[in-house]
Write a structure and sequence with these properties.
488 residues, alpha/beta, Aldehyde Dehydrogenase, Chain A, domain 1, Aldehyde Dehydrogenase, Chain A, domain 2, 7-stranded mixed beta sheet, 6-stranded mixed beta sheet, binds nicotinamide-adenine-dinucleotide
Length: 488
Amino acid sequence: MKIGMGTRQDVGGVSVPVDHLIGGSWVSSPQRFETRSPMGWEHLADIARGDDATADAAVAAAVEGFEAWSAFSVGERADALHRLADLIEARNDDIALVETLDMGFLYESMKQRLVARGALNFRTYADLITEHENSTWDAKSMRNQVQRMPAGPAVVITPWNAPFMLSTWKLAPALAAGNSVIHKPAEWSPLSAALLAELTLEAGFPPGAYNLVQGIGEEVGAALVADPRVRRITFTGSPETARHIGRAAAANIVPFTAELGGKGPFVVFADADLDAAAHRAAWQFDDSGQVCLAGTRLLVAAEIRDEFLERFHHHADALVLGDPRDPATDIAPLAHPDHRDRVHGFVERAREAGDIVVRGGQPIDGSLHYQPTLIEPVSNDSEVVQREIFGPVLTLQTFADEAEAIALANSTDYGLSAQIWTASQSRAERVGAAVRAGLVWVNTFLVRDLTAPFGGCGISGIGREGGDYALDFHSDIKTLMILDDTTK
Ligand code: NAD
């Protein structure tokens, strides 16, 4: 490893650091990996490829950084988080452009909403720690007080599909709680994290409070989660990877949270505003379906199936596939050729199994775009119903009554999100209570207050993030009990 000023590369006119940030310095690696753009599969940058030595150095830096960062007062920590949020807002358009080039996210969405949401993650947690009061009560001649202690270095591992927003979402509570962090972004979209790392330096974080390690999950990611000096692991990604990380966490008795995949039911009752529901159903193709929360299983009351389908096609036909830099584009390419092939594999196997492809079902030649696809499965056991595809592929099934709707909604191993479309308040409450999912939206989608709990049931995850839930996870919680006499 070589410590220096750090290597930078020009990405669409933005200068991006392509090394690790360890202990406040840019650190390179002998090996590099390349990142390419989903638009035309153009080469964007060569990034430092971390190894065991990188992981070791990053954890050592985080151990030192923890001493400094956890000694900051709550007010000092909150100020640093607000400064970081200010800097994110100031670099809004650069972050948006780099993310669009690297991952294919729609530029307008990034520019108008998602970078700002990233900044808001830091502000929300700055405010939460400032407003927090230890709960205190008297019982059995004792004064009891519950305190949060920063837990230690935390490894934060993020996926490729919404890299900037998800990174800020996971980093903010870890840092706010007083933990130092080692952030390992996904190798398919590593660039916006590099800009964020640079901003932590500008925001005056002490060396080692925030460390960025770039590289391949099975290599440096695996080394990081296996290190016994790490005291928290927080992961967003696939259930398959979570199983590996869970084993490493268990070996060191380290708490870990896992935000994993989804197979959300999108339940439409006959009394729903059908056009609103069909419009929203077509928008489950947003981000080319690379959304863990998407309602990918359309479950529709049998008596409205035809009318719903007609309206769905109408809205899906209006979606514009194109370059994510173009404001007219609704649907961007998939993030990676391997992922396009994986998505198409699901559709090919569905055809072979006798499922009916009602629309789409093909990659678009010469690009990473995939046609928005709807499949009517022969059975609820079909692979396309039971497994997360993570592409623009929805299934359509019907139900006879509310009981069947609930049974179908709960019939996969996942349980991240659900959507219910109905005009009836009592049905919304009844079905909402019966559906096994961490997040249930009724007649809307995606809107969520950052202080609300977030997480999944079943193989969709372990633990809850958001608001105080994430702060509790990142803390060692202590009960301080003082005999009443002591206070006299
Ligand atoms: P992934 O599991 O392949 O990779 C996620 C991260 O884990 C990457 O940074 C990767 O490098 C790292 N990694 C891989 N193997 C590792 C190992 N052995 N040890 C340590 N780290 C390792 O997931 P992905 O393909 O990047 O992301 C897509 C998945 O993420 C989908 O299943 C999606 O539903 C899920 N997701 C969930 C949420 C949520 O909040 N529930 C949000 C976004 C994405």
